[in-house]
User: Fold these one by one.
Assistant:
Number 1:
Amino acid sequence: MVLKLYNTLTKRKEEFKPLEGNVVKIYTCGPTVYDYAHIGNFRAYIFADILRRYLKYFKGYKVIHVMNITDIDDKIIKAVNEQNVDLEEYVSKYIKIFFEDIKTLNLETFEYYPRVTKHIKDIVEAIKKLLEKGYAYKSKDGSIYYDISKFKDYGKLSGIRNVKKKSRISHDSYSKEEIGDFALWKAYKPEDGKVYFETEFGRGRPGWHIECSVLAMKYLGETIDIHTGGVDLIFPHHENEIAQSEAITGKQFVRFWLHNEHLIVEGRKMSKSLGNIITLRDLLNKGYSWRAIRFLLLSTHYRRQLNFTYDALKSAENTVRNLANFVIKLKFLNVNGKYDEELKKKLEEARRKFEEYMDDDLNISEALASLFEFISFVNKKINKGEVSRKNLDEVLEFILKVDKVLGLKLDEFLNVDENVIKLIKEREEARKRKDYKRADEIRNYIREKYGLILEDTKYGTIWRVEKI
Ligand code: AMP
Ligand code: ZN
């Protein structure tokens, strides 16, 4: 089965194969570490994580994945000077928080997380090449700008036609209305305070866009397979990355550009500047589980906007709880029917459908819908008593494979304390003796001590989790 991905560059779904053998090289624009990341940011990173996991666990590729850490920019410099702290002290706090957060959300560890301030030399070298090749020029104050009129393909990603540059732009983020030559190197200004680098260009610091060209090519080579980021990065950031990288190498920089849509709240993009952000920690402090948050962020197709509401989060929590209780049943229920061929067929169909939907530009919403339909079919079969242990083992294996992509750590629900199993046996004995007092005592104890709720079925006793 072939994977198709929607490429922002060509505006269509294209068959994906890596350039070199079995290895997929991915670059994901990472966080600016001047504050806590918000759950909109995590939507972008979880999307990259799902892509990576699907390529690895379903498509059999090896992945080399880079995410940069922007540890210098206008906002960081402002904060450092306002609070009169050291740059390193300031950013290391937020870097630590970022890594804690992505661990909490169970993102896989990517292969490289390069920090911009540790690569100033590489950045200077790249800018020198752009100067030598005539794509860049120095301004009077010593800053260096990229001359977009020199790059004939400028606008090919964002679809901007007839580029008429209006001005020279020194700030990092700007809109299509402002379009112009952008800063590669910013000469020192008094308001930069203590934050600068001494280089052969004099005192100063890099602009924002150059870092991603440099770090992507340093760790992945001149042409990379997939570049991801939110739709807000298409222009100017990614347009500028292409202009820089392709001017330097004369080769195609990125084969597939993938952009996730925004997480929105009450109709507006979640963003710090709109003052509507919610952090991971806000939600954890309110008692929501990381699994529910992760599931909510991954379950809408990445090219659709995701409207954040607390109702949706609660519903995500219920879904994950149902999944957890389903795998518990698959593993521990003492079923005794004979091997069911119909279930086997449905399982094969479920496997095929999951992959078919995911192959269609990672259509996870449809993939999940078909998965839940299958789960409800299995539950009906179980209730009718028509399945064997082998049936359930096979289904469990499939669900756990799907979970390699979802990343909900469902297997953790299968590690049950031996004492629980012992107590359940003891309770069954007590019930046989009609010692209902003891039976109830055990039920209550298991609920209090382990948070598990016992349920008596025709296959004996099974438990459910409440907290996920
Ligand atoms: P930033 O730190 O603003 O550069 O954002 C880091 C990543 O998060 C980028 O890929 C952004 O496109 C993405 N992003 C920012 N806000 C949102 C949002 N509300 N929804 C989804 N992605 C976002
Ligand atoms: Zn970037």
Number 2:
Amino acid sequence: MQRLIRALVLLLILGLGALWGLAWFGRQPGEELGDAFLRQIAALTGQEAPVPVSAGGVQLPQGVTLGGPFTLVDQDGKPFTQAGFGGQLAVAYFGYSFCPDVCPTELGNIAAAMELLSPQEAGRVTPAFFTIDPERDTPEQMKLYVSNFHPRMVGLTGTPEQVAEVARLFRVYYKKVNRPEMSEYLMDHSSYIYLIGREGRVRLLLRPNSAPEAIAAAVRGQLAAR
Ligand code: NI
């Protein structure tokens, strides 16, 4: 019996070690090891044991906390902190308004998910878009952009330092990319959807390209859990 337990513990350690190893070697440029590890776990749960839609997305591994209090500026140029969500749930995405494809798709999915909720449910959730490109995403630009997606979507920007701090809190990877054939720079960035609860704490991550139905189900799950 003891031998069996020892073998199992060894297996577990080897398994975790392998995951860290995968995370180490599979890191994307500039990605932190912790983020790469999260990505490996997400990939694992996606491939081998799909998280039921009702459970909604990628649960954070135990002991991992993301998010927290932040200070930014909203699309009207007013200071905006986590308190701006009024203690309610926020469904958030980090990207930039000049993004050619991924960001509009993800924000479109979030907007579509809002439409799938009942008015009562939707009233308890704020859709939010955080920029990682403060240089071009001024409050005016953000206002124009978020209004394309949802009338209640909040657009958040700030100084480069504020944006960097929020990205650190939420473990968002971003990097400016210059392509010789393009006159404007692009931003490389991670692409999770965040469900944010009280105190700016992340309750749940949703994989990139989650369907509106899955986003709505995850929001409902979080609303029910409150
Ligand atoms: Ni993007």
Number 3:
Amino acid sequence: MANDIRNDWTLEEIQEIYSAPVLELMYRAATVHRKYQATGEVQVCTLLSVKTGGCSEDCAYCPQAARYSTGVEAHKLMTYEDVIGKALDAKNGGSTRFCMGAAWRNVRDNSDFDKVIDMVKGVNTLGLEVCCTLGMLTEDQAKRLKEAGLYAYNHNLDTSDEYYGDVITTRTYNDRLETLDNVEKAGLSVCCGGIIGLGETDDDRIKLLHTLATRAQHPESVPVNALVAVKGTPLEGQERVKTWEMVRMIATARILMPKAMVRLSAGRNEMSYEQQALCFMAGANSIFTGEKLLTTPNPDFDADREMFQLLGLKPRESFKALQKEVAAI
Ligand code: SAM
Ligand code: DTB
Ligand code: SF4
């Protein structure tokens, strides 16, 4: 395994890895995981929807798109004080990363963005890794976020370039890739992954992984979401993703991008501890915790604490705590 960190994976190679017998695939992924990651450590992140609903985009999976009747009400941007209160709750619940999401197509240079900049500064002073997911960004906007203390920016490619148009018509794959480039140019960490269960084929999943794993720099984190099929969205009738599909996706991501944090993201609320344990075996080393993702339910801090105890998992320290340790040596 001399050459694990590669950016030249071919589709054929990925196809072969992805299609291996599942136990072989898990063994290979767990081996890469042991070499590059602290096994038994799981990063604990919390999401907060700072601006919910009323979004102009038509993402077929999303309960926050204004055009679907999902029961999600549109809200204004949360106040600074409320956001800091939630960040403190997250910290007290054991989270080390806090991700603020907004139901925006793209960031605009207005007073709401100024307020988000203040929120980033405030959460940063609590010692949490700060992440945002606000839609498309220009390079200047990415730089402002970086200067405010943002650590990572989440912007998912969701699926393959080929299938993208079946899921979203109000923006293109290239729009997404452009934002990822702007995020990188500003020196922010990239958090980029996808969703399975949208009606895509295995080939689409393989192509998404190929796009991620052949970027000049692998994303720092790769969220793997199982579709949460929300009533009122065009994808409300989609069948639930099977655990083995999550395992295949996570294990392949781990093998292709050994140093990335692979996040077992949406879909955990429907998974048992045993099912989640298989995902950790396959190389997942990050979760979202706290009773809500953005708008849908998620296991709360207590449930996750119990799971960590049962499985003997340890929460990963924030990169800030690690920096302090290094400085003290
Ligand atoms: N509006 C911004 C954007 O689209 O980039 C940020 C928020 S958006 C809700 C963040 C991500 O959540 C999406 O890119 C998608 O991958 C994920 N997501 C949204 N709805 C989901 C669902 N029902 N199931 C799983 N993942 C979902
Ligand atoms: C990601 O990949 N998954 C999170 C986070 N990044 C922003 C969002 C999942 C949203 C699930 C649907 C909801 O709760 O609204
Ligand atoms: Fe809007 Fe983001 Fe939801 Fe798409 S995924 S509808 S851009 S909030």
Number 4:
Amino acid sequence: MARDPNHDILFEPIQIGPKTLKNRFYQVPHCIGAGSEKPGTQAANRAMKAEGGWGACCTEYCSIHPESDDTHRVSARLWDEGDVINLRHMNDSLHKHGALGGVEMWYGGGHAPNMESRAVPIGPGSSASEFEYLTFSHEADEDDIKWLISHYVEAAKRAVQAGFDIVYVYGAHSYLPLQFLSPFYNKRTDEYGGSLENRARFWLQCLEGVKNAIGDDAALATRFAIDTLYGPDGVEVGDDGLKFVEMVDNQGLLDLWDINIGDIAEWGEDAGPSRFYKAGHQRNWTDEATKIAKVPVVGVGRETSPDDMAARIREGRLDIIGAARPSISDPFLPNKINEGRVEDIRECIGCNVCISRWEIGGPPMICTQNATANEEYRRGWHPEIFSKTSSEDSVLVVGAGPAGMECARVLGERGYDVHIREAESEIGGRVRKIVKYPGLSEWGRLTTYRQLQLDKLKNVEVHTGVGKMTADDVINYGAEKVVIATGSHWATDGTNSITHDPTPGIDASLPYIATPEQVLMGGKEIGDKVVVLEMDGYFTGISIAEYLRDQGKEVTIVTGLGGIAPYTHFTLEAPNLHRMMHEKGIHAMTSHWVEKVEKGKITLFNLYRDGYKRHAGPKTGELPRDAGTHVEELSFDSLVVATGRIANNSLYRELRARKDEWGANDIGGIYQAGDCFAPRLLADAIFDGHRIAREFETSNPQYAQPWIRERQVWGMETYPKITDRETQG
Ligand code: SF4
């Protein structure tokens, strides 16, 4: 199909200093867990986006010196020749597709924990970080400031050696340049503190030093949080924000503004989860910068609609469409717009599971929508290209939830004849319920994308409303291969991860006890006073509590965990979820679990009620500490139990027990995908379905094939060598 002429403007080149951006699609810096230590992953992930049409792709934040080390989180680094070699591979890979490479030079100041380097970070003051406890900076004197600026300059020279086209001085998310600029951090009384002119001095000197270092070899960009959202205590767009833009532009050093909002302690105000922020939520701030900026402005806001993107550029509200999450979810978003295939865009759902991996530190980024994210190098997966099978096997997929939909889609793309059969009237499985929770409707994109792709595949038949398949149904179906993707359900008996047993008195067949599914599907009448008992730790407990509170119920969440929905700290939803609880009056009781449940009453105990000193020696048959007996009681009209999910694996188990019948019925293999194998994140279920389909011809696709691991191999060269040190002492 031809491109919609309304979108032509998105494909117009634009000059960024000495470099030409071929179109208006720009992958802003974002983390993937590769840094400089996994050059294959780094290069392949970014290059896939370049192949998909992004005009520029940046690294994640890239440390310029060991004084700025974010371990346990993974940043890129430009510390030495080894980093230059590794990141040059990324740029070489981008350039093959005509994309520019950007590096976000980062010095964390007081937010860098330096757990690997053990160096001391330097900042405008000597204050404790509000983001990273037990982390302090050393207050810079004039020599330190020159030393800091020299770090930026030397790293910029290495960036040019590595082939970067765009070199950033990163001042968003409360990192060093913004720490100097913002009165929230900067309490100095010398020429670097006080007036805006003084507070801006460090940033301007960095820009000047870097510009002199890179000349016309690369464009100079800066990422600026134009409003830290602290009100007058920080940087406000209507005050220092716009004034700083004018100040920098008047120096004529900068080639590109990368504008966002927020800080680091609550950077979900920037990377807004869809639960709270819809696409374009930063427009009212970014547009202000574009109005006065003398160089192009790139901005973000999880934009996935090409009509909205084109309108923003046409109306002069933004010059370049920046994206992190939309580019993770669909690396081929620009090409799909270019080819007039906008319906094929795999839109980001704003769940922030990608971000959760950075926040946890260490593991590679994953994506709920795009199972191939970060698998480009280590598994060789391409999001749009699937190896065609030579097998003539037909495949039955039982269950059209997240894993089943994805498995059928990929098998279909690979050329298999697939029947996917869903007991319920629509596909989607668990997602059909999740979208009923307040704020989570965009998660339905997991289904709409797959529904459309399945509809396009002529070799895939989707059967809905067929009821639950029995083992006889499967065995007699006539398929040569079977994938069971029957999902999971919430335990009806209170089985949980604290006791690993059912909970006395919990039985969801009783009228006053309900699982989340029973509540959402309208199967139970819920009384006015509700206790939500949860041990999920993610979105379910808090979501069902809000759902019921919005109906006017009095709601208390009880959890054995130390906080409410702790995983949402990693997805950046936690601060506003806690504000929501406070504002809506949802009560909470943490670190408690259940002794027993009776009609109208739940008896709870504090998980730490037992003696804190262990007994001196063992006594068989007794706890090795003084057993506590204190309990507390809560009354309720209805108890909602989200204590644990149980795999729906009875069909597989029955089939497995009849394995000797498979051969006679020409069944070559039966596998399990997703929650029926083990209930996990939606991202994991979708990945599972995808992986099994990719590896379907292996001897047993139930078990994953090995992937490429990137690490130092003993006996190979290291950078730097120990002999590069000035002292061997
Ligand atoms: Fe979007 Fe979620 Fe994928 Fe992140 S993990 S890119 S938020 S769909």
